[in-house]
Amino acid sequence: MEKKQFQAESTRLLDMMINSIYTQKEIFLRELISNASDAIDKIYYKALTDDSLVFDKEKYFIKVSVDKENRTLTIRDTGIGMTAEELENHLGVIAKSGSLSFKKENESKDGYNIIGQFGVGFYSAFMVADVVTVISRALGSDSAYKWESSGADGYTIEPIDSDFVGTEITLKIKENAEEENFDEYLQEYRLKAIIKKYSDFIRYPIKMDVTNRRVKEGTDNDFEEYVEEQIVNSMVPIWRKNKSELTTEDYEQFYTGKHYGFDKPLKHIHISADGAAVYQAILFIPENIPFDYYSKEYEKGLELYANGVLIMNKCADLLPDYFSFVKGMVDSESLSLNISREMLQHDRQLKLIAKNIASKIKSQLQSMLKNEREKYEQFYKSFGRQLKFGIYSDFGAHKDVLQDLIMFHSSKEKALVTLDEYVAKMPEDQKYIYYASGESIERIEKLPQTELVADKGYEILYFTDDIDEFAIKMIMNYKEKEFRSVSSSDLGIESDENDKEADSTGSENKELFDYMKDLLSGKVTNVKASKRLKSHPVCLSTEGEVTIEMEKILNAMPNNPNVKADKVLEININHDVFQSLKDAFEKDKEKLNLYTALLYNQALLIEGLPLQDPVEFTNDICKIMV
Prior knowledge:
Elements: H1 8-18, H2 27-49, E1 62-67, E2 72-77, H3 84-91, H4 98-110, H5 118-123, E3 129-137, E4 144-149, E5 155-160, E6 166-173, H6 188-199, E7 206-215, E8 223-231, H7 248-257, E9 267-274, E10 278-285, E11 302-306, E12 309-315, E13 327-332, H8 341-345, H9 348-371, H10 373-392, H11 399-402, E14 407-410, E15 416-418, H12 419-424, E16 433-437, H13 441-445, H14 451-455, E17 460-463, H15 468-475, E18 477-478, E19 481-485, H16 497-508, H17 510-519, E20 526-529, E21 538-543, H18 548-555, E22 566-571, H19 576-587, H20 589-607, H21 614-625
Parallel strand pairs: 1-7, 11-13, 16-17, 16-19, 20-22
Antiparallel strand pairs: 1-2, 2-6, 3-4, 3-6, 4-5, 7-8, 9-10, 10-13, 11-12, 14-15, 14-17, 18-19, 21-22
């Protein structure tokens, strides 16, 4: 019989599995049982649209059997089975999922999805087995086939007799190694424990021949062992259990078993609602951001069940975009089993559930913020950006929902603070909520524009995310306090002697500033004496709605809109450089031209803006040095 070769990718994965570095090899059983459950699901779903099929739940089960003498473990299901072609495609190709293909073929009919990527889950068997044998007969077929492989060297497929529809996977368990006890996967109690741990909520019976003891007939103290078939899983979904029965570990195992993430959830929310919408839900707030979260590949949504039967794997309508990081499931008795995606969009019950879920998520986040600050900040570092996107999107329609959840680094606290915490500490004479934008906290702290606000003792919020200023523009004001950039032309700070001096000096040197403004025509809208600078010689401020950070972000976009901020070059009149400017204005215009270009380019560098001509800038520096 000709041995067929795996694809290159499959071979690499098999090699990884065979020489596995995973410590939890027990997950292979979870994966194989999940695949078996999926196979039965497929018959159920076919029966919904095929009148010739009758789904009698009593006939469908998963059986786990052990043969210690021959070191084999068998997982058999009464599911849909596979043809020779499907065995080839599903088990010979990495991540080629029968469940996924089935879903794609049928999703336009009833809108359901099947969980499971048969290929990858199946390969986990090679972590514990030297040889894996699959015998399968497809629903509606009289022929059965055997697929067999001893690992990365390939596999064979041949016809075989089988009197049942479904799939039987037999694992030839490896011999014990120096640091590996493979015997445990042949031990009855250990297999039962693994099934309870990972597969207790599978809705089909998982059967095993279990050894028990009883008093031998006709004796008082003589015991005998006997074997009987038992169902070892509860088949009661976790969401239908009382919260008092469940531990944090139960929820974490459910999270892992459902493949919601590779992390542990920070928080779970268990909802049992009996109001206008009757449903149960378990929601998770993840600890870490998924690697593809900000990519097109990421799909938001919750698993949606009707009376315990899966309708949709990712129901996006259940979550607003700003809470798209939430994982979990919803089971409702109020939804029709064969509901379509089009119907879901108009379903009143679904909208009620979605509204309630959003409210529950917000309440949980507020509770974390109030009572578990460290945990909330951990969440915020992963998903705070998404909350700010939520404020900005839809023209600020969700700002009231989200504005109390966002945080920014504080110049005083040297830590994250909420807007409410900022406003609560504002002095009476402070008009605005001040903020400074930049690429990092370290760069913002060095910005010359922060000097006056900091000197007044006012707290500054540091904006380091590209979305920050755009989100704040949507909020506009918080508790009747407007937001104001430290680079704004009007800081709303009462005039003092320094301000009067700047006004006076500005008037006296109007010709100088006008001359510099003409030199920088098209680059700045004005040149003036600064009221905000204390120690630095120069800075840029802005007039109008567009700030310098916003300009950088907008112009970094693929469809560059070429938006420009109205920049003002501010000169520190108390710095030695100002006297040099005055002297050059009176005696040496060529030198003034040089100084003006240098100061403008220095201001650009401080802001992280590109120089129009870096070579000219370096040449100008050299002119000063000689």
